[in-house]
Structure formats: structure tokens, C-alpha cells
Amino acid sequence: MAVSTGTFKVGAGQTYTNWAAAAADLAATLTGNIEFQQGANSADTAVGAFVTDLAGFNFTVSNNSAPAGDPTAGFKGTFSVAGSQTTWAFSNTGGACTVEMKDLNWDATVSSGTSAVVSWISLGAGVTAIVHDNLLEGENFMEPMKIFLSTAAGFHVYNNVFWGAASANGLQLRNAPTGSIIENNTSWGNKQGFDCSNLNVDVRNNLAFGNTTADFLDIATLTNGFNNVSEDATAGNANWGGTGTNNITGITPANEIISTDDTMENFMKAKAGGSIEDGGVTVVISGNDHGIRTNVRPHAGNFTIGADEIIVSGGKPVIGGVVGEVVCSGAVQTLVFT
Question: Is 239 part of any domain?
Fold first, then answer.
């Protein structure tokens, strides 16, 4: 029975065993908002092809146990498909709506040329795509995420970590709507970190390092760059074809990031005292009010570059998206946040 509205879980023992099964059961036209949640670990061996007419309703893919930037935590989806792991092709005969992908930990375990873990094929007019707080790991030629579409109202990509595509791109913008925003992402361990295809998009507060050919690629025609950081020279202000302002080059990664070991909790965690700690510009994406590890953004009035946000003494943690307090009874306690 095809589903057209509601909330459904994906993973072992859930409504759908894997993402391909969920995609296959998606109705041709939505009748209400719909959400698919990673409800347990899952393994996919066939393409998950999400195709529907949004009809003015919101489509969400999320995680019922978000990793919050920690690759060892939460529920995880693994993919071993000879081709793109998931494809997203939506039309929209209704009013303005959103497609949101958030809090996922997805890992490709096979290498396949010109393919991606997440391939955005099309979005109908009036649709805003929002991709945030995800851990997306490619494999050699398999890219973490690729964007082909051009008809959507906008594409907002923030607080993601892209890695593992040693022979391809971390994030590839093959086509994207003018005015799209790529903000506070980290790309590491790929051939190219961010391939912008000379599109008219804003690239803000992104961190790229450890990419073998270029940290930022094809930015020389229309692309705008603000407060990005690269290990190589590619983020330099003069390299941006639109506007290039306050970008930083030539960083030493060990001064900026605690660990690049994706089997550890502190993977891609920002290090205090480096260039990225306070180097960012004010964010413009609505909802980008915390880093991938849920630390409040900005911290003490400053913005960290990359997916993580530094937490400072006196800062308040964010739990479930809500700014919280830690209250200790009895004797005075000293809490140290790292």
C-alpha cells in the first residue's frame, strides 16, 4: 500500500527494513506532510529512488536517534549499491513547501563512478530544499552528495560533514538554483572538497582540508565566497568570481580540528584557538542557530567556521534543539564542556 502522508520508521525491525523499501512504497502524489525516520540501523543493497508530486506538502527524512556529529552514536544507514545510493526527484503541483534531510549518518561502502550517496535530481517550483546536520561518507568515486537540480526555490545546505570520496567531490553542485546557500559545512578526505561548478551561489563559513586536488573547485565565474577556510590556496579572496571576502587559506589542520578519525566521538570537532574558532561571518540560513554537535551558534557573539561550533565557558548546551541549563544541587560543582 503506497503511503502519502504520516510518519514512518526505517531500519531493522521497523516499518521499512531499509531506505529502498521506503522509497518503493511512496505514493505518486502526497496528500499531507510525510516523514521517514531512521528508526534503527539499516543496510541497503538497492537504489532508494524517492519520486513523488509534493502537491504543496512537506517531505522530511530524519533520524530518530541523531548522531549529533558523532559517527559512533545514533542510528546509521549503510549502502552498497552499484550506482547512486539514493535519488531524489520531486515535482510540485501545489504551493510552497520544503524537502528536508537532517540528522542522518549515511555511509557508502562501495565505489561507483559519477554516483553519490545522495543525488538530488529535481525539485518542483516553489520547493525549498534544506539539508543539515548530516554525516555523509562517500567511498572513492562515490560522492557524499550531488545536486543536479535548478528549478527549486532554493537549496540550503548547512552543518554537514562530507568525506571519503578519494577520487571525487565531497559536495558537488552540478546545478543549483541561483541564491542557494552553502553554509557551515566541512569537507575532508575527498579529491575535491566543494565543487561549485561556477554557479551563482553563496558559499559561507565552510571548512575544507585534506582534499587531494582542491579544497574549493570551479568558483571563478559567479560563485560568492565569504569566510571560508582551505588548507590549500583555493579559498583565497581573488579566486571567487562573484564576491570573495575574509576567506582564509593555508591552515594547519591539527590547529583547527581535534580528530579526523571517523571511528572516534570527536571526529571533526573544532579545536579552540585556531583560525576557525571565531572566523565566521553571521549566518543567513534560518535555523542555523547551532552547530552539528548542538552547541549554540553564535558563541559569545562569534561564529565558528565549519560544521561544528565551539562552546565557550558560560555557554548553554542545546538539548533536542532547546537551549538548556545544567542545575546542580548541594555543593558548588564545576562543569567543563569540551
Answer: yes
Residue with cell 538497492: 46
Range of the structural domain that residue 277 is part of: 6-323
1 domain residue, yes or no = no
Joined together, the cell numbers standing for residue 218 give 570551479
How many domains, the chain? 1
- Under 8 Å between Cβ of 220 and 241: yes
**DSSP symbols for 190-223:** SSEEEE-TT-S-EEES-EEES-SSEEEES-SSS-
- 301 CB-contact burial (10 Å; exposed 0-12 / middle 13-18 / buried 19+): exposed
Query: What is residue 302's DSSP assignment?
Result: B
135-137: strand order across its sheet: 42-44, 77-79, 105-108, 135-137, 161-163, 186-188, 207-209, 229-230
Q: Report whether 100 contacts 58 (CB < 8 A).
A: yes
Tens-digit pLDDT profile for residues 274-333? 999 999 999 999 999 999 999 999 999 999 999 999 987 544 454 444 444 444 445 555
81 within a domain of the structure (yes/no): yes
Other Cβ atoms within 10 Å of 15 Cβ, number: 17
Global confidence as pTM: 0.91
Name the strands in the sheet holding 97-102, side by side, starting at the edge strand that comes first in the sequence. Answer: 6-10, 34-38, 59-63, 97-102, 127-132, 154-158, 181-183, 202-204, 224-226, 244-245
> How far apart, in Å, are the Cα atoms of 205 and each of 37, 228, 283, 288?
29, 5, 8, 12
Look up cell 565531497; give the residue.
Answer: 170
Q: What's the pLDDT tens digit per position in 63-88?
A: 999 999 999 999 999 999 988 899 99
Q: What span, in angstroms and rounded, lies between the C-alpha atoms of 308 and 120?
A: 25
In angstroms, the CA 68 to CA 130 distance is 17
Q: Quick check: helix, strand or coil at residue 152?
A: coil
Number of H helices, E strands in the chain: 1, 27
Please, where are the H alpha helices in the chain? 19-24
Spatial contact of 270 and 161, defined as CB atoms under 8 Å apart: no
- Whether residue 332 lies inside any domain: the answer is no
Cα–Cα distance list, 252 to 45, 261, 270, 318 (Å): 39, 17, 13, 29
